Structure formats: C-alpha cells, structure tokens
Amino acid sequence: MQISFVGLLVCAGILLVGYFCRGPLIIGLIASLAFGATAFMTLSSLGGSSPLIYTFFAVLLVTAVATRRRIWRDLGDVFGKIRPLWVLCSLMLYAIVGAWLFPRLFAGQISVFVQSPTRRGIVEAALVPVSGNITQTGYFVLGGLTAIALCVLLLQEDRIESIRRGFLLWCGLHAGMGLLDLLGKLAGAGDILSPVRTASYAMLTEVTEGGYWRIAGANSEASAFGGGALTCLAFCYTYWRKTKSRLAQGLASLLLVLLVLSTSSTAYVGLAILSIPIGLSIFRSFLGGRIDKDEILIIALIALAAATALSIVLYKEEFFAPFVHLIDSMVLSKSSSASGQERLYWNIKSLQAFINTSGLGVGLGSSRASSWPIAIASQLGLVGSVMMLTLLFVVFRGMGSLKHHVDRETNAVVSSVRACALASVVSSSLIGASADPGMFFFIALAVISTTRANARRNSRAAAKRALQFGQPAPFAPI
C-alpha cells in the first residue's frame, strides 16, 4: 500500500473548506467528487487499485454515523420510514454474493472483457474471479452505505443547506479546474493539473482532436470531464430555474461553454438528450401563455447564436470547418471508428454473457461493458436489474405531489439533485463500464427519500391540525 501525499493534502483542504461551510463531511464528500483522478493511496495487493479521495470522505461519513450513540434506534427509524432502503440492502447483499459466486460458478464457460493484469488495457479472456470483483463490489457497497448514512443524518436534522453548498462547491471546482486545464494548454504550459492526478489510471490529458485541445480538468480524460460537466450543468440549470440564483446561472453558462469545448462525444450526445425535456418544457409554457423571462432569455440567446453563426458562415464559409470536422469525428462517425466498434463489441459480449448465464449475471466487476444498463444486465442479472430499476424509479419520481409539503428552497435543492443524478445516469448509459451507478445516484436516492419522508410527516401534521380546527384535511400521498 502506497499513500499519496498530494491526495491527502487535497483531502485536508476540502475538509477545511467544509468545516468553514459548517458541513465538513457532507460538503466534503460532494466536493471531492470533482477530483476524478486524485487517489489517496494505491493498493498493490488489488492489482494497483487506487481509491479516489471521495472514498475517504464516504468512509469518514459512514464511520461517523455508525459510532453515534443512538445508531440502532436511528437505523430503525430510517428503515421504518424509508422503504426503498430495504431494496438497496437486498441489492447490496445480492451484489456481494454474486461477485463471489457467479465467476466461480461459470468459470471458463464465458468470455468477457476485463482489465489486463500485466499491461494497461482491456483484453478478452475467459471468465474467472478477478480483483475487480472485490474493488467494484467495494465501491458499490460503500455507495449504498453512504446512502443509508445520509438518510440517518438528513432524517434527524435539516441539512439541506449543506447539500446545496456541497453541490455548488462541486460545480465550481469542476468548472474552475476545467477552465484552468484549458487555459494552461492554450498558453503552452501543458497539463498544469498533473500534480493532482495521483490515480493509477491511463491519463489521456494532453490530447488534441480536430485541432482542439481536449479538456480533462481534474479527470483522467475528456470523456470523464464531459460527463461530469453534464451532471454539473443539470444541477446548476435546474437550481437557477427554481431559485433565479445568479451564482447558479453563471456556473451553468461557464459549464455550457466548457462542455461545448470539451471535444467529448459523451458530453455532446448527453447534452442533446437533456435538451429534449428542456425544449418541451419551454414549448409547453409557450402554448400555455406562461412563458417567463428566463425562457425568453434562453430563446433569445439561441437565436442570437444562430444568427451570429450564420453571419460568420456568410462572411467566411470555412470558419467552422474544424468544428464541423470535430463533431463528425466525435459524434456522427464515432460508431464506425475503431474505438466505437470495440465498445460495441464489449456490449455484444456482455449481452451474450447475460444470456449464457440464464439471466443470473457474471458478478459485479467480472466484466466490462460500454453502457450502464448493459453492464447491470450482464453483471447483476435479471434479479439485480429489477432491484436497480426500482431504485431508479425512486430517483426519477423525485418529490412528485409531496413537493407541496416542503419549502421552496428544499424543493429546489431536491429537484436539482434529482436532475444531476438523472444526467449522471444518461452519461453512464453512454459510456458506463460498471453496474455501479455512482456516488451521485446514491446521494440523490438519500436526499429524495428522506425529503419525501419528511414531507409525509409534514402532511400528516397539517392534516391533524386541520381536523382539530374542523377544516378539510389536505391530501397526503403515500
């Protein structure tokens, strides 16, 4: 085991900022997710696995909750009020058993794609137990335990302000480091953020595409930065629309620019997908005569950008040729490229593994896919997929009609966290290699579930007061 001094230094800095923001563990956990290539140690015994710094904060949070005096009473209260946690625990248990059992049960009968133990890269090999069964299952279980720990904290005390500050800090760090990375490359300084990249990943940071520098930020490659920018943009845009926050508006604008300049096909396709509900929402407001000034601003900016682009093309026709070539190579022709064909083959082999195991799966961490839904099916099987879909429905549903029983700020934060998690799911569905939905998903699950539980409590209290004064009781959804 090798300790990373730089990784620990970054952890200390985040803890200090979190302390001054009055939420060191919650804010620290969320903010640490901006450092996608910063590890605090390297585990040689597990094939050189290097846990990122967010795992340090997740372990701290789980430990702090587990050592509370009333932990068993708190857990009873949480599991009694938040039923999706039973599904989460069942899925965690199934993932642990499957990661140990299925690679041994189907050993040598199925070919899968795994990380090569001797060289960096993905190779096709016969199914056998690998170190990924331990590491990927560990990350998944840690995410589930973090969700339970957050439920304990959020159910006992109103910490929605810590959630808000944590996500805004994470968005600011992600955008700031992306901007620094781009400016450093344009100035000829190269990868100025290389000191914080302490993970044992293959770092594809000083790469160009179509004459454009690829933005990696504090991540290992442009696709990871693009996926992170997409999730940040979803949070900031939703929070801006809900609260009219100038900070969120500024961050959303900066993130949109960086996302366009990132040269990430994941970011481009994800942005196109997420633009559909936004466009439908604006169109619905227009038809209903309820369009507000922010929606008018969005339409005006789009029209201005289109008019500017048209004017430039009329003045100098070849001006956008490099960008058109970039879009063609990164999006339109991506599926026909060697990388696209390789990733397609990963997905085909993963689906074959699902069929060949009769829907049981090969076990978490046993294989590599290029799409999160396919990774779930191949690694967790039919049973695990159903449980994961149940949790995904909880996140997708959000507050629903219960939003009327919480204050506007709480509803805005919960809606923004939900949008962030769904954007993360979209990004993972495009390039996700593992069945682990990621820490954003588990945080959103905890925030939404506890807020719904608190809203139901507020609804029952309102109904009780209404009955005492002889008024009709408000409807309280389950």
From TrEMBL:
The protein's name in its UniProt record: Uncharacterized protein
Organism: Rhizobium fredii (Sinorhizobium fredii)
Entry keywords, A to Z: Membrane, Transmembrane, Transmembrane helix
Segments passing through the bilayer: 52-72, 84-102, 137-155, 167-187, 222-240, 252-276, 296-315, 376-400
